[in-house]
Amino acid sequence: MSLRDQVQTQIPGVLADLKSLITIESVSADPARAAEVERSARSIVRLLEDLGCPDVRVMRADGGAPAVIGHFPAPEGMPTVCLYAHHDVQPEGEPASWRTPPFVATEVEDRLFGRGTSDDKGGFGVHLAALRVFGGKPPVGVTVFVEGDEEVGSVGLPGLLEEHRDEFAADVFVITDSCNWAVGEPAFTTTLRGLAACTVEVRTLDHALHSGVYGGVVPDALTTLCRMLATLHDAKGNVAVAGLATAYAPALEYPEDRLRAESGILDGVDWIGSGSFVERIWYKPAVSVIALDATPVDKASNTLIPVARAKISARVAPGDDAKKALAALIAHLNDHAPWGAQVTVTETEITEPSVIDFTGPYAEAARAAFTQAWGGVEPVFVGQGGSIPMVGDFGKAFPDATILVTAVGDPDSRAHGPNESLHLGDFEAACLAETLMLDAFAQLGLEG
Known about the structure:
By secondary structure, this protein is of the alpha+beta class. It folds into 2 domains: 3-192 and 354-447, Aminopeptidase (3-Layer(aba) Sandwich), CATH 3.40.630; 194-247 and 284-351, Alpha-Beta Plaits (2-Layer Sandwich), CATH 3.30.70. It is 33% helix and 23% strand. The protein is built from 13 helices and 18 strands. The protein has helices spanning 3-22, 34-50, 121-133, 157-163, 165-168, 211-214, 221-230, 256-263, 277-283, 322-335, 361-373, 389-397, 424-447, and strands spanning 55-59, 67-72, 80-86, 106-108, 111-113, 141-147, 172-179, 187-192, 194-203, 209-210, 286-293, 303-304, 307-316, 342-351, 354-355, 380-384, 402-409, 421-423. The strands form 5 sheets. The chain has a 6-stranded mixed β-sheet. It is elongated. It starts with a helix and ends with a helix.
């Protein structure tokens, strides 16, 4: 039986196990669901134990979220491949926004809906399928690493790498946590923007005031904060923070009608920024105000409020330095405080951007495997506007390793949002691609 046929045989069972994992509310950002994150990790351990994995366990750094690591020893002379995914998921948000229950995996036409289907329990499903094809005895050494706090910035990973470096050592890292170019078109991600986030607090008064008595002479904190936030962009929507870099963008066309459909931008709303769409979403910095603390509208009175806060998220271009970018953002906020307002800026998150070198025999073998799995469709080399923290962490710890960033999701998967889903045809293709890739890596080991 061919590898393609063997993958098809395994798909129903893998989907059944993936659906079970989706029911576990492993939201790492929610302390009330820490037990669910633990249950998710234990479920993954059992699935690997069922494959006969001789060394699998839960690991954590400094009491952090539970990750899973499992080792399938390398046959003599064969390389070792680390297969990465994460089992924690984003909060589901408002359940009414979902067309199906967020923690009930539901098939609708050619897609599987549910939180974590594509980000990233589906990524673990790909690894599970490939390992099952080989009966738990892959032709190369395999380390399966399934992280438990990726959605809160992989805070435990640096500690795990420091404490257990030898357990992670591999010739190739396959990180199945990105996005394909389109349904039916696979992709390898080769650049990632970084993240520099902070909160800014503005104070103008030591207590609230009657807006009729003092309005017109005393600045309220929210108006002051709004004026400050407005300085983050120029009139076209380009980032106006000095000191942020822009990376070189390849000539890859992102059709406007496709971007409009995939983003859900409303009719009549203009795009922001300048340059090609690819440049703006993958290779230029972006700054967004993602949260605001002030008086809710339904609790408002005619009052000048003394304090207001906002959370600002800056996406940092590939090749830039996230720490320097955050320093530039903080300096901008302090320099643009209207009317002498008191400003306090607090760092909340930093993730470095990544540039991933897609060269060498393992990369070329992967390209061929993905082309074959998708029926002759060549993979597209893409960037991502978001951050995948472990890419940089693995690259620093193992600079000689090949890093391959693959995907199960597509632009309509809506990761992090309501109605997250996985295209079932592309899921099967991804399972086949990884199976073919591991087999090809074994052939390289024989040749070496």
